[in-house]
Design brief:
Radius of gyration: 13 Å
Number of helices: 0
Largest sheet: 7 strands, mixed
Shape: globular
Oligomer: single chain
Low-confidence stretches: none
Length: 127
């Protein structure tokens, strides 16, 4: 069982920044693409970003493109989400997640393509 532990959430004013971190217990971390999803109250969980296993490819939801940056450090089994120019509509619980299959980024918006999920970290952006 892989454990994913997120940190870095909090309360920030609109226009501010936060950096989320996610540490994985996966032994072969460098062979899995890693994703970030978020879920706001009363809404479905939605895709935010994905980074390929070596970090060479990144993918973003249109709503965060240009404001969020995903990165990873395979020596530390850690994936990051740098969030800038935050807006109140970014308020949600943010989840780190690992792909079901190694070396795979297909259908990255589909939650069913992911096997392990962190417990989530709350991000609240005040106006």
């Amino acid at each position: 069982q892989v454990q994913l532990v997120e940190s870095g959430g909090g309360l920030v004013q609109a226009g501010g920044s936060l950096r989320l971190s996610c540490v994985s217990s996966e032994r072969t971390f460098s062979s899995y693409a890693m994703g970030w999803f978020r879920q706001a109250p009363g809404k479905e969980r939605e895709f935010v970003s994905l980074i390929s296993w070596r970090g060479r490819s990144t993918y973003y939801a249109e709503s965060v493109e240009g404001r969020f940056t995903v990165s990873r450090d395979n020596t530390k089994n850690t994936v990051y989400l740098q969030m800038n120019s935050l807006k109140p509509e970014d308020t949600a619980i943010y989840y780190c997640t690992q792909r079901e299959r190694q070396y795979d980024v297909e259908n990255y918006r589909n939650t069913l393509e992911y096997k392990y999920w962190g417990q989530g970290t709350q991000v609240t952006v005040s106006s």
